[in-house]
Amino acid sequence: MSDTNLSAVLLEKGNLKLEERPIPKPGKNEVQIAMHSVGICGSDVHYWVHGAIGDFVVRAPMILGHEASGTVSEVGEGVTHLKVGDRVAIEPGVPCRYCDYCKGGRYNLCLEMKFCATPPVDGSLARYYVHPADFCFKLPDHVSFEEGALLEPLSVGVHACRRAGVTIGSRVLICGAGPIGLVCLLVAKAMGAAQVAITDIDTKRLEVAKQMGADFPVHVTTRDGREVADQVVRALGCNPDVTVECSGAEPSVQTGIFATKSGGVLVLVGLGPPTINIPIVNAAVREVDIRGIFRYANCYPTALSMVASGQVNMKPMVTHRFSLEQTLEAFEASKKGEGIKVMINCDKTKA
Ligand code: NAD
Ligand code: ZN
């Protein structure tokens, strides 16, 4: 274990530096975690490059990272379900636990949400990090730290497929084969989807999707959303019951509406431009339900049991690995978008 706390701090837009920070002490109901694996998400890269996502603006130095796992190194007062040495996955968003949304089970909508590496809240890309114990999930011995970190994007997939109503026999369209599209693919299949078509403009990503179980990769070469919808229907042999949009691109959202069968569901996971044109009357008169997705609620335990039981295999998603000291290189690699998931190992002692 380290006696210092090297941390990846975004000082301001474009300026990501490794800095020594004090080792944080766990308060009541918190645990201190010696960090192991932290995955880089598109949002981490976005804050680094652009300094903001929508209304969330980086105004003060912030530690990045929110897809994370590590080993409990100290427990605060009142913690009963975890002990020093437990390996845990960290659910990065901590809500107030008291408001109507929290009490109603939709805590992802809590207005008081504190989410790692969403300004001004520090993330977990550091040697040590402190987190409320009830948002830490003990990993079985056979689940790796990397898989623990990947429970974060997997939870997005669980939430999206739940809200989409994917079930046995579903015919599913996933738009966009980035990390989020791929986790939705894994979850849809695990939930019993009969066939999954997946679109992307990038053939390399479609190849990965095929390896991960996609039945019909659909290469998008036009901005005509209806034309892509026709391609999808030809590939699937029918209109999809549900569509999970994971690119945020305007023509792709249009495809989602045109393709989804009447009475079906389109969930919007991808977050692109804040305002876009969509064929809303087409959706209205065919009773296509359009549902938003914001992160997840109550999905970590499901994601963990899916990984622990072998129901999903997340391992092929990790294509690049770096040490905490190589954080800048890791972010450059992630920005280039060459692989799928870039992982950072924060532990000096364990490979
Ligand atoms: P990513 O950028 O790696 O993947 C997006 C994919 O969409 C890329 O492979 C890209 O080539 C593809 N694409 C672009 N235009 C397309 C088009 N017209 N048709 C089909 N595919 C197209 O991003 P990611 O990490 O996989 O995340 C996907 C989206 O989900 C992002 O917009 C992200 O902000 C969003 N997201 C939302 C939530 C949420 O809670 N709603 C959570 C996580 C991520
Ligand atoms: Zn709340």
From TrEMBL:
<keyword id="KW-0862">Zinc</keyword>
<dbReference type="InterPro" id="IPR020843">
    <property type="entry name" value="ER"/>
</dbReference>
<dbReference type="InterPro" id="IPR013149">
    <property type="entry name" value="ADH-like_C"/>
</dbReference>
<keyword id="KW-0560">Oxidoreductase</keyword>
<dbReference type="GO" id="GO:0008270">
    <property type="term" value="F:zinc ion binding"/>
</dbReference>
<dbReference type="GO" id="GO:0006062">
    <property type="term" value="P:sorbitol catabolic process"/>
</dbReference>
<dbReference type="Pfam" id="PF00107">
    <property type="entry name" value="ADH_zinc_N"/>
</dbReference>
<dbReference type="Pfam" id="PF08240">
    <property type="entry name" value="ADH_N"/>
</dbReference>
<dbReference type="InterPro" id="IPR002328">
    <property type="entry name" value="ADH_Zn_CS"/>
</dbReference>
<keyword id="KW-0479">Metal-binding</keyword>
<dbReference type="GO" id="GO:0003939">
    <property type="term" value="F:L-iditol 2-dehydrogenase (NAD+) activity"/>
</dbReference>
<dbReference type="InterPro" id="IPR011032">
    <property type="entry name" value="GroES-like_sf"/>
</dbReference>
<protein>
    <recommendedName>
        <fullName>Sorbitol dehydrogenase</fullName>
    </recommendedName>
</protein>
<dbReference type="InterPro" id="IPR013154">
    <property type="entry name" value="ADH-like_N"/>
</dbReference>
<feature type="domain" description="Enoyl reductase (ER)">
    <location>
        <begin position="14"/>
        <end position="344"/>
    </location>
</feature>
<keyword id="KW-0520">NAD</keyword>
<comment type="similarity">
    <text>Belongs to the zinc-containing alcohol dehydrogenase family.</text>
</comment>
<dbReference type="InterPro" id="IPR036291">
    <property type="entry name" value="NAD(P)-bd_dom_sf"/>
</dbReference>
<dbReference type="InterPro" id="IPR045306">
    <property type="entry name" value="SDH-like"/>
</dbReference>
